[in-house]
């Protein structure tokens, strides 16, 4: 790995008690370039702009995918990553579906650890705080012909994230717009999937909803995802979440919730969730919770949902009663080394990683 | 408009008798930046890279859309554009669906004419040659939160294109992969639509097909597009093309073909094309032609197609017999000022546009 440390650290401009997510990027970033059929040597360098022309193929044909990860500091200032291998495997699934080259493990994992080590001062401590990490791959060849790029960049950038807390939101069950086609790229963390979701979300916002529960594009009868998260429904004391598919992202937080719920003895069913079954459970009073899960906020609980012009309220549960909130706490405790980790998910970032890369 | 002419023209490195499409970009480009809710002043400047960090939201969330256009020189070296308003309207339809700001007409059309005027020496002459023009809009804010960008760039770049000729190709009728969801962004020239098509196309290439005829994602029973083009089918002496929809691009070449065919007295039906009807016409001998149309190649004729493991040959027609080839010739003659333009499609680029902008 080529190491080029910054000579102008911006850490003094960062107040860990007073910042917003995305206001600050850490001092460094990892980049690695692909050309002539091979990845070059990874480079740790100061975070900042690089030269790309408007004919860059990522801007034109959208070959770009990413991961979302977090690093956490425990009460002893030790730094931990979480289920790194899941994100490494998924970025390569996304890359494959977008006809992009897969990134080698030593570049992804080695780059991640080196960046976390050198920028460890940027990882905030305290309730719910973390460093959000963004690995991504994007096309970099200049060209106007709609074809696969011959050049790519892998990069890792990072920014301090604020508290996990997010107030319960109201969501709209989509009966027109959709985020994924059968035989499409919905399972990939493809850049274009996000752009496609913004306009329908704005329309839902205009109707007073904060997010959309995406349904299948053919019938709109089955739940797929919620916002940019996987979705869970609790009916009685059973948790349901749709099986992953070519249309549904294989979320790391989703998988962790399923595992934690089973570990706690909760009945978890990974099966299609029909809108009509949710409405029936609403009617008979057995619908207890609906929530979304993802790396950024871990869990967003829903307070109400709209479907075809009608609004439905969800019960207000205490943190003890709520499966969503108790599972979230269990997960965060593992992530931040506040609890045992029976699953081997937590990974400590050793100091002075750079001396060994 | 801010004008910054190059001091290092690269035109002497461009041999108009010997080049490949995309090898060369013209000396200049147009850029215009959007922030604080408004587009700034357009700028004509030397073509080249600009600074963007890997946290650029276009790389991460794919807010990016484009247009494809061409400029042509006639035998007197006058320069013409084609149906500029159609592309202007469409880029804004794409922008709206991707929750991006619409570009003002004076920036799009004014920028286009200024660029064509200053770089007119780059427009090659001769059979089928043209200058390919790429207007695009993409997000430019740096951020790691999946939301709409607050900053954008509009740009126009251009590259000399080679002859229109493309040999007839074999295509695969998709029975698994798809390019567009109902309620999705298929009608937009969204960057992500192209990235999503590359991997299925590679798989089809591996089976010996050059392109895919995309079918609806729910049933795969109806034609949608072919490769990156709109698709036409001729049965007997009637031409069919699917109606535009939220899933099908409203192609300028498609619209021009429909208009030209009607003008020639050909029976044109804009209606869904069922795979089973194509197969039935193949069986009874009435299937004459299938072809794709788009700005880049105008027309690609198909020589054969595959469906569920079976291959079907299409008749070999002369240029006189072929509707695809005679309509193509009629269109190119209008574009290059080799024929009358009864539709008012052609637009001459006046000299010294820059003095008036």
List the main descriptive attributes of the protein structure presented here.
homodimer; 357 residues; alpha+beta; D-amino Acid Aminotransferase, Chain A, domain 1; D-amino Acid Aminotransferase, Chain A, domain 2; six-stranded mixed barrel; 7 helices
Topology of this structure?
The structure is a homodimer of 357-residue chains.
Chain A: E1 2-3, E2 28-35, E3 38-39, E4 43-46, E5 50-52, H1 57-61, E6 64-66, E7 69-73, E8 79-82, H2 84-97, H3 105-118, E9 130-139, E10 152-161, E11 169-173, H4 191-206, E12 211-215, E13 223-226, E14 229-235, E15 238-241, H5 252-263, E16 267-270, H6 275-284, E17 287-294, E18 298-307, E19 310-313, H7 323-335, E20 346-348
Parallel strand pairs in A: 1-4, 11-12, 11-18, 15-16
Antiparallel strand pairs in A: 2-3, 2-4, 2-10, 6-9, 7-8, 7-9, 8-20, 9-10, 12-13, 13-14, 14-15, 14-17, 17-18, 18-19
């Amino acid at each position: 790995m080529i190491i080029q440390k910054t000579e102008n650290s911006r850490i003094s401009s960062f107040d860990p008690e007073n910042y917003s997510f995305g206001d600050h990027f850490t001092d460094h970033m990892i980049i690695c370039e692909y050309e002539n059929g091979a990845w070059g040597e990874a480079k740790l360098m100061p975070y900042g702009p690089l030269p790309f022309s408007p004919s860059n193929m990522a801007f034109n044909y959208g070959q770009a995918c990413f991961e979302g990860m977090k690093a956490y500091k425990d009460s002893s200032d030790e730094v931990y990553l979480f289920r790194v291998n899941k994100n490494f495997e998924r970025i390569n699934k996304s890359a494959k579906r977008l006809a992009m080259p897969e990134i080698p493990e030593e570049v992804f994992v080695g780059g991640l650890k080196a960046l976390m080590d050198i920028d460890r001062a940027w990882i905030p401590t305290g309730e719910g705080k973390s460093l959000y990490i963004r690995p991504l791959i994007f096309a970099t060849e200049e060209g106007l012909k709609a074809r696969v790029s011959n050049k790519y960049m892998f990069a890792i950038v990072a920014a301090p994230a604020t508290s996990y807390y997010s107030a319960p939101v109201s969501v709209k069950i989509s009966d027109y717009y959709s985020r994924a086609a059968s035989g499409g790229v919905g399972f990939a963390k493809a850049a274009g999937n996000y752009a496609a979701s913004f306009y329908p979300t704005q329309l839902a916002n205009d109707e007073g909803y904060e997010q959309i529960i995406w349904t299948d594009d053919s019938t709109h009868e089955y739940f797929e995802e919620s916002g940019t998260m996987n979705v869970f429904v609790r009916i009685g004391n059973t948790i349901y979440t749709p099986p992953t598919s070519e249309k549904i992202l294989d979320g790391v937080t989703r998988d962790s919730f399923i595992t934690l719920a089973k570990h706690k003895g909760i009945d978890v069913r990974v099966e299609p969730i029909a809108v009509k079954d949710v409405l029936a459970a609403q009617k008979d009073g057995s619908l207890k919770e609906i929530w979304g899960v993802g790396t950024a906020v871990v869990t967003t609980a829903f307070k109400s949902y709209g479907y075809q012009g009608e609004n439905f309220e969800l019960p207000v549960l205490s943190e003890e009663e709520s499966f969503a909130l108790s599972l979230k706490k269990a997960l965060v405790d593992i992530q931040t080394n506040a609890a045992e980790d029976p699953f081997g998910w937590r990974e400590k970032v050793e100091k002075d990683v750079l001396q060994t890369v």
